Amino acid sequence: MDVTLLPVPYEDKTILQNLMQLYRYDSSEFDGHVLNQHGLYLYKYLDHQWTDDHRRPLLVKVDDEITGFVLVSLDIPKEFTKLSNAEKTNVISDFFIMRKFRRLGVGKKVACSLFDQYKGMWEIRQTLGNQAAQMFWKKVIHEYTDGHIHKEELVQNDSWHGPVLVFQS
């Protein structure tokens, strides 16, 4: 199984937009996203993926089949993080692997590839009700860091409500 992580060029914005519908549907039971009057889930930061210098939209493929996406923000100043006190921190904004590829090690390979490619402090936020995501990230980060997670806390404020993990890659 060949897992690849590729930048999404602006010309392929529609691919990311379509995958975002699957992702929002999948996560709506945890985060309360609702369809608009046209039957679509909105994502107000879609265009920002190509206009903000710190953002990286990435497509996940397995053996050339589209499998999911990752939206990463790199070198975020500490005033925009939840727990990290590092001067610059990397954040996974959104992470989606389609159901048929889950529990096959795809997500772990993608996450570890990101951590290897973008060394530094990382902050991973999970939705409070999404127990599967929380277990996934704890396991992946624990294995990647040999158990060296810097901070782990349930953050509950106006801008975030859920667990946050901070670690060094």
UniProtKB/TrEMBL annotation:
Pfam families: Acetyltransf_1 (PF00583). Residues 8-169 form the N-acetyltransferase domain. It comes from the Bacteria. This is Acetyltransferase. It comes from Lederbergia ruris.
